[in-house]
Amino acid sequence: MIEQIKLDLKKMLEQAFLNEFHTSVNVVIEAPKRIDQGDLSIPVFTIAKAISRPLPETANHIKKTIESSMISTLFSELIIMGGFFNLRLNSTAMAQKVIVNYMSNQNNYGDSTIGEGKVVCIDYSSPNIAKPFSIGHLRSTIIGHALGNLLEKCGYKVVRINHLGDFGTQFGKIIYAYQHFGDEEKIKKDPINELVKLYVEFHELAKTNPSMDDEARRIFKELEQGNEEYTALWNWFRKVSLEDYMQVYQLLKVTFDSYNGEAFYNDKMQPVIDELKAKNLLKEDDGAMIVDLGENMPPALIQKTDGSTLYITRDLAALFYRKNTYHFDKCLYVVGNEQKLHFEQIKAVLKKMGYDYDEAIEHINFGLVLQDGKKMSTRKGKVVKLVDVLNEAIKLSQAYIDEKSPLLEGKDLIAEKIGVSAIIFNDLKNYRANDFEFNLEDMVRFEGQTGPYLQYTSVRITSILNSEDFVFDGKIDYSILSRETEFEIVKAISQYQMTVEKAALESSPSILAKYLLNLASLFNSYYGKEKINVENQLEKNTKKHLLAMVRTILNDGMTLLGMQIIEKM
User: Which one of 41, 73, 210, 387 is at 20 to 30 Å from 198 when CA atoms are compared?
Assistant: First the structure.
């Protein structure tokens, strides 16, 4: 709401300067340097320069324009401070506006319509079949899921795609290994570990027997061509792998609209190659086929010398399929920083092909998960499985609950919600492009910038509201909400929708995460100073209305991030 006031004020002043001085002026509205100087501040220097008037005259012109406007009642004080024009909001009027808006939208507070009628495809998670779902896939899965939630909150139709890594020469190796030294019963009992063992064993043996690599390439080539025996094995490996991955998705409460992986596009790549040829974009280079992207970018390798295709060929086929099937307005790829060039090449090839939606393709990049400053992909030579990390976080949460609330009903489920949400929030509070340090013990703490801190704050508010029957009926003393401590919370509440929109448009869940931390901090500070259940019924009701709004936003915001809400702790 404050953002809307700033926008209305900006438009009004710019129009007034245009009418009066026939000059286009950019009016900047920002926060004052100190809270005691007001709520909004307008630098006057640049405006005075643009209209060629002295500072005092320009500031007075701003003052008279606001005083004669329809929005003047929203401000209690207009202050000229040297080169700045500061405004203090009418806290009573503002609080009333926020409450009325909330009461009109209790079930969907913060919802936005900026994406109405638009479709966004999000490609995220995408683990590799026959390999463990490792900690390396954590960020893509969590960031992608949160972005989907944020975009849906803003009115977009979201298509969630898990582009499984289910094709490639590694399947020729695994099929060879299974046929020569595999064990069906062992794979049924422990599919991922056994398939990984076969893959590792193949590589060890191939060091002294290079012909195995040739045989694996032959098998994969026949798999591409539809060999029934190899296809049956591939389908089995894919099925048992996906069943294993579902353990992680169920813990994270992550779902997808499509599990079409690389293999799905096997019969859709030749039309891409044919189109590139027809448009004279393919060039031969040492037997391989490439698209030349100019001096500033390496060429895109479309087809190897043996005729097999590469990631970029499959990604182009997938892109065309998604455009034709879902008619997207944007297509987001939640993939690590290291794939930057790959997506630049895809966009460049698309543009060369004459398509006009290259700018609709967005690489949502992210940094590494670190432990002790090193990439947390392996631990003591072994892959770090995400399901093991999630279970470890749950155990730490269980230990905390056993210590603090051993008789808590349903504590196993609560511990799961706390542990899993702790990992999710610890990731999302960091700006996605940055690397971040992974420390389980820190992230499951109930104090500091953690997920459990947010969950506990929500539980604390629930406990206060449940101490007596509370109904959100709008019986409020707005003069109480106009006081400095309450009004800071009111202002934060008014910024929720704007925060959601900003997080969605910038593909940055950390914007919402940091907002929630600030809101929780404002409440906890307030609760430490103010008594809620006071004798005066109207005052008590007013304070509980404020707390109810804070809880609504905390719970909604946590849900958007993919966290789980708990009622007691």
Answer: 387
